[in-house]
Every structure is written in structure tokens, then in C-alpha cells.
Amino acid sequence: MNRIIKFRYIWKSSENAIKKYEYTLEELEHEDVAYVIADYEASDWKLLGKVQFTGILDKNGKEIYEGDKVKIPSFPTLLVVQWDYHGFYLFDGICNEASIDHNECEVIGNIYENPELLTHQND
Fold first, then answer.
1. What is the 3-class SS of the chain, one letter each residue?
2. With 80 as the cut, is the pLDDT of residue 11 above it?
């Protein structure tokens, strides 16, 4: 099974409105999408993040992207999805990391739209 290569662009307006657009690699290579991105870059919208889809869904069927904050019942803090040359993994911001288990984790936000989650701890 081939993994879908997809990216999410997260934009923020000067009025703090947020827009997200998700494109497959094939769509990004298409000229019409390039114009959409260029229009945003030329406007008052600021690109907050361009993140990659992991190819994994959380326990609720939601797509997991790099930069997402996830909750795992067996872990005391929220974890962020990161990527390195070995693949995607979860990181707690200190030193602990774990592989992504889609049957257990739940996406609750991302570091771009929910910056308050960077310091949030699970209750």
C-alpha cells in the first residue's frame, strides 16, 4: 500500500482568522494550486505552517499531521508529532519519544492554531 503524500498549509489573516488547505503532492505540482498559494503569499495572510501528513489516522479516523498535538491515555503530557529521517514520532518536549500508535492517540489540535497547547498538560 502506498502512503498518500499530502501537505497542509495553515494561513492566518491580519484579523487572526485561520484557513487550512490540504493538497496531495500531485495537486501541488498542478499549476492552479500554485496560483492559490501565490495569491495568499501576496495578500495580508501569513503562512503559519506547511506540514506533512503522516499517512496515519488517529483513533477517531482524523488525519495526523506533523505539528499536531495528540493525547495518549497512557502518557501524562500532550505529545507533538515530529519528523526526522527515520519517520514520524511523538515527542513530549523534553526527552521522551514514542512511535505513533493510531489505535491509542487522539489529535486535539496543532501547534499553529492552538499555541496554548504547547504548555498544556493533561488533567
1. CCCCCEEEEEEECCCCCEEEEEEEHHHHHCHHHHHHHHHHHCCCCEEEEEEEEEEEECCCCCEEECCEEEECCCCCECEEEEEECCEEEEECCCCCEECCCCCCCEEEEECCCCHHHHCCECC
2. yes
